[in-house]
Amino acid sequence: MDTTSRTRELIVPLVEAAGADLYDLEYTGGTLRVTITHQDGVDVELITKVTRSISHALDEEDPIAGQYTLEVSSPGLERNLRRPEHFQGAVGSLVALKLRAGVEGDRRIKGTLTGFDGSVLSVTTDSSNEPRTVVLEDIERARTVFEWGPAPKPSTRSTSPSAQKKKAARS
């Protein structure tokens, strides 16, 4: 069993005991990244609780040889999609995909993830009404995309309401 699998086995019960779910686990370059979600959102208190619990267990069990850095966070607004359950959870969301070299068509796709059956996903882009099907193994990188709403319209007032009141009081 590799380091990530052993570590996953160790920390999943700890994350769940805190009332959270493990979204992702990645060990690269001496950094163990633990990403958690919670139905009510992830706050600093939850991250602190989970970090302490995981840190204590890792110190006792020592599944990672040598020194490493532990990072616990939420997936954020723009979530990396790496596992089938990530894609399933992102159905209906705007996504950006980068496909492997050699895949027919555009290698970069941005659109709404309209379906996922466990191995094939459908993405509808703004430029096409027809969904494009993509095999999961053809995806090099994927993430959800957060788009800000339209910018507020500039004010037509030349002065603030409080300044207008002061001006009216002087008249």
Layout of helices and strands, plus pairs?
Elements: H1 3-17, E1 21-28, E2 31-37, H2 44-61, E3 69-73, H3 84-89, E4 94-99, E5 108-116, E6 120-124, E7 132-135, E8 139-144, H4 161-170
Parallel strand pairs: 2-3
Antiparallel strand pairs: 1-2, 4-5, 4-8, 5-6, 6-7
| CATH class annotation of the largest domain | Alpha Beta
Taking Cα atoms only, what radius of gyration do you get, to the nearest Å?
A: 23 Å
Please state the second-level CATH architecture of the largest domain: 2-Layer Sandwich
Predict the CATH topology of the largest domain: GMP Synthetase, Chain A, domain 3
Mean residue pLDDT: 90
Instruction: Give the helix level as a range of percent.
Output: 25-40%
The SS-based structural class is: alpha+beta
Number of DSSP helical runs: 4
SSE succession: HEEHEHEEEEEH
Basic shape: flat
Report on this structure.
The chain is an alpha+beta fold and 171 residues long. The protein is 29% helix and 29% strand. The protein folds into 2 domains: 3-73, 2-Layer Sandwich (GMP Synthetase, Chain A, domain 3), CATH 3.30.300.70; 84-144, Roll (SH3 type barrels), CATH 2.30.30. The chain contains 4 helices and 8 strands. The strands form 2 sheets. A 5-stranded antiparallel beta sheet has the order 7-6-5-4-8, with no helix packed on it. Strands 1-2-3 form a 3-stranded mixed beta sheet, with helices on one face. Helix 1 (3-17) packs across helix 2 (44-61).
